[in-house]
Amino acid sequence: MTKVNREVVVSEALALLDEVGLDAVSTRRLAARLNVEQPSLYWHFRTKKDLLAAMAQAAMAPHATAPLPEPGDDWREWFLDNTRSFRRTLLLRRDGARLHAGSTPAGDLERLRHKMEFLVAAGVPERDARMAMLAASRFTVGCVLEEQADDGAPPPAGVPVVEHEQAFEAGLALVLTGLVHAAGVRD
Questions:
Q1: Assigned CATH topology for domain 6-55
Q2: pLDDT above 90: residue 183
Q3: What is the pLDDT, as a whole number, of residue 185?
């Protein structure tokens, strides 16, 4: 039997996710991959839900380590870049959006607070900033869910082909336009 630690379990679980997809990830398969007995995984994670939460947090590391906004940054450009970074990170993993959906940003609260304070300091009312961040997040997860569910088969006759990135950018621009309008923020 191989002795493993929490980080190894999460890393191997993410590799398994990329190979087989979220529906096929199981503690049985993960234990076999790690060459350990299945109950030994419960030493590190009490439930599969706990393991999935740790996987979601680890999968978000590229976005969670992206530079935070600084005073003087254009808040609109930052908002777009931040949302694009979130999308790119979700797309790094097979079923990344499904893994992330419903997870709570436990380790990211200070970063979220910093982002909110940045928007408020730029003149965006706190409620509008909070709702815009939530709307952008949910919009992005939905876009990536659709993109990752796309099997690449041509659509039925008469149905236009969806260009995922183009659709995402168009929707993101609408979210930003709505935020600028609702917040009444001027240059």
A1: Arc Repressor Mutant, subunit A (1.10.10)
A2: no
A3: 63
> Which superfamily does CATH assign the domain made up of 61-183 to?
Tetracycline Repressor, domain 2 (1.10.357.10)
Local confidence band at 1 (pLDDT 50, 70, 90 cut-offs): very low
Compute φ and ψ for 165, nearest 5 degrees: -65, -40
Q: Where are the domains of the chain?
A: 6-55, 61-183
Structure-token pair, residue 109: 């609260």
What gap in Å lies between CA 63 and CA 75, rounded to an integer? Answer: 18
Q: What DSSP state is assigned to residue 58? A: H
Residue 148, Cα to own-chain centre: how many angstroms?
Answer: 13
DSSP label of 95? T
Best CA proximity match to 82, nearest among 63, 100, 98: 63
pTM: 0.91
